[in-house]
Write a structure and sequence with these properties.
- The protein is an alpha/beta fold and about 250 residues long.
- The protein has a 5-stranded antiparallel sheet with strand order 4-3-2-1-5, with no helix packed on it.
- A hairpin with a 2-residue loop joins strand 1 and strand 2.
- Helix 2 packs parallel to helix 3 and helix 3 crosses helix 4.
- It starts with 8 loop residues before the first strand and ends with a helix.
- About 20% of the residues are buried.
Length: about 250
């Protein structure tokens, strides 16, 4: 039924939207995620089921109806910037790696395999158990980059040992431009002093954060579901040190 795909402009409820992502639910309904283009809904995000809207109320904008205007800027600079911004808004609609391999890395083919596998799953859960020095952090960065580009990584939580927090922050920022806010025990304690009792410090408006296993245990009195960041689409990366026992790994998974 659905002829709507990522990158299309649609008119719905008398305003225009840019489609970011589409998917078919378990009930065979079409879930569409879009961002507002018209002034009244500019940059606002929406999710809706196409079948629940009035028949004919979701209309793709025909490119033939667009009115073209001349671009007087030098070397068509305004046009180039507009096209670039639209490309950045468009989510990849295939399971192929299209973003992560463009980071500041010389990616080997096997380092793309976790992302390829995860992109084919609705709710990916992967265990990357490569040997020391083969780039597990890079593999995680590639995967997270792909999920962010598809709107599936709006919130990120990295849980690792205290000794590896700095490494993860540096690798994600330098190679993938993903800024992780450090949430160690001291930072969590400072936040808990400013928020109501039993509120989760991880629910503050941070898009991405990194914390140690011990720091996450500080919130163990909270409901288990709240440890994963609830708002948006959460991505949790658990980075264990080499030599971690199999029982510890199983308990974390």
């Amino acid at each position: 039924m659905s002829t709507i795909s990522p990158g299309m402009r649609i008119e719905m409820r008398s305003v225009e939207w840019l489609v970011k992502r589409t998917q078919t639910t378990s009930s065979k309904l079409h879930l569409i995620e879009a961002v507002g283009i018209s002034d009244i809904v500019k940059d606002k995000e929406i999710k809706f089921i196409q079948e629940y809207e009035k028949p004919g109320s979701v209309k793709p904008v025909d490119p033939a109806d667009v009115i073209l205007v001349p671009d007087p800027s030098p070397r068509y600079m305004h046009t180039m910037l507009t096209l670039e911004s639209q490309l950045r808004y468009t989510s990849p609609n295939t399971h192929r790696v299209s973003v992560g391999n463009q980071a500041a890395i010389d990616a080997l083919d096997f380092q793309l395999d976790p992302a390829r596998l995860a992109l084919g799953e609705e709710r990916p859960r992967l265990l990357i158990a490569d040997g020391v020095g083969l780039g597990k952090t890079i593999e995680a960065g590639i995967l997270v980059s792909e999920l962010i580009a598809r709107g599936r990584g709006q919130r990120i939580l990295v849980v690792t040992t205290k000794a590896m927090l700095t490494q993860f922050q540096q690798e994600f920022w330098i190679r993938f431009s993903i800024a992780l806010t450090r949430m160690d025990s001291a930072a969590i304690q400072r936040i808990k002093e400013r928020i109501p009792e039993r509120h989760n410090p991880f629910h503050l408006s941070m898009e991405a954060c990194a914390s140690s296993l011990r720091s996450v245990n500080l919130t163990s009195s909270l409901p288990a579901a709240s440890l994963g960041i609830q708002a948006g689409s959460p991505v949790t990366v658990l980075r264990m040190a080499s030599g971690s026992s199999s029982s510890m790994i199983r308990s974390c998974l």
